């Protein structure tokens, strides 16, 4: 089952796309093809993935993982917390896309909630950290009910297209957000890291019937260096995610290319469901 795969201490099998900020080439795996089911044709995916190279644009991704104090976080307060985080995008400049949710299944980091925010530039991210409105949301609706925050920031690339950049359109309105955090060992060589991330990218780029979009990169947040790399993957559905992480190719790739070279990893996921549309 999916929860068993994601709860292992060293992560039975986690995620990425461009070579994790390495000097490797860009691998994109997103598709305009609508696919809400889980039926999967490898031949169809091969045809899609082998299409001509496309123009890309750099984006900056922010991941914040929370550890809630369950004894203090009532259902109503949890809803308010998620609503305030989600609707903050309507009052802050620089936010390109956002998703937030309650994490499904137990994970090795004991995280309970996750926030993903996309920016166009690093400067926008820096302004976000210092924004009085965001700080107020944290101080009044998040930190009183959480005993730990983990932030990871990285640069990646997406297709240079409005829908892809802003994560807009029908296929972005549903699905499962998958977050992977990895710490490569200090004795892992650049080649070890590049080989691992490239193998992951090549595998995921061949499966657009399961994946809407995936980004990954090296963590540049100097105040939160617990993890060296991160990835965020939007699956078309929970079932699509389960097909991927339970697949033999992914498991073999993780065990041979990642597991020998990492110190720790955390994988988690949450359902994509807009939690608020009105400004709080």
From TrEMBL:
The Stress-response A/B barrel domain, residue ranges:
60-154, 176-270
Q: Which InterPro entries does the UniProt entry name for this protein?
A: Dabb (IPR013097), Dimeric_a/b-barrel (IPR011008), HS1/DABB1-like (IPR044662)
SMART domains according to UniProt: Dabb (SM00886)
* PROSITE patterns to which the protein is assigned, alphabetical: S_R_A_B_BARREL
How this chain assembles, per its entry, is: Homodimer.
Q: Which PANTHER family match?
A: EXPRESSED PROTEIN, PTHR33178
Name of the protein this chain belongs to: Stress-response A/B barrel domain-containing protein
Q: Please report the organism this UniProt entry assigns to the protein.
A: Brassica carinata
């Amino acid at each position: 089952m999916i929860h068993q795969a994601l709860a292992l201490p060293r992560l039975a099998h986690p995620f990425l796309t461009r070579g994790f900020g390495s000097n490797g080439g860009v691998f994109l795996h997103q598709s305009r093809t609508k696919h809400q089911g889980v039926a999967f044709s490898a031949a169809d995916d091969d045809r899609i993935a082998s299409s001509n190279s496309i123009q890309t644009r750099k984006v900056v991704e922010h991941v914040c993982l929370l550890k809630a104090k369950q004894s203090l976080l009532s259902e109503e307060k949890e809803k308010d917390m998620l609503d305030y985080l989600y609707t903050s995008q309507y009052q802050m400049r620089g936010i390109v896309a956002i998703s937030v949710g309650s994490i499904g299944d137990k994970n090795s980091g004991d995280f309970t909630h996750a926030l993903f925010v996309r920016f166009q530039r690093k400067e926008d991210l820096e302004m976000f950290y210092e924004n009085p409105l965001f700080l107020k949301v944290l101080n009044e609706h998040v930190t009183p009910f959480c005993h730990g925050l983990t932030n990871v920031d990285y640069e990646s690339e997406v297709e240079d297209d409005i829908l892809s950049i802003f994560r807009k359109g029908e296929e972005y309105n549903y699905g499962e957000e998958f977050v992977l955090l990895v710490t490569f060992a200090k004795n892992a060589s650049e080649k070890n890291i590049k080989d691992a991330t490239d193998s992951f990218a090549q595998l995921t780029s061949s499966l657009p019937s399961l994946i809407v979009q995936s980004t990954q990169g090296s963590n540049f947040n100097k105040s939160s260096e617990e993890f060296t790399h991160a990835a965020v993957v939007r699956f078309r559905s929970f079932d699509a995610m389960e097909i991927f992480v339970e697949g033999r190719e992914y498991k073999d790739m993780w065990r041979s290319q990642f597991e020998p070279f990492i110190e720790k990893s955390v994988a988690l996921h949450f359902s994509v469901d807009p939690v608020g549309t009105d400004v709080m």
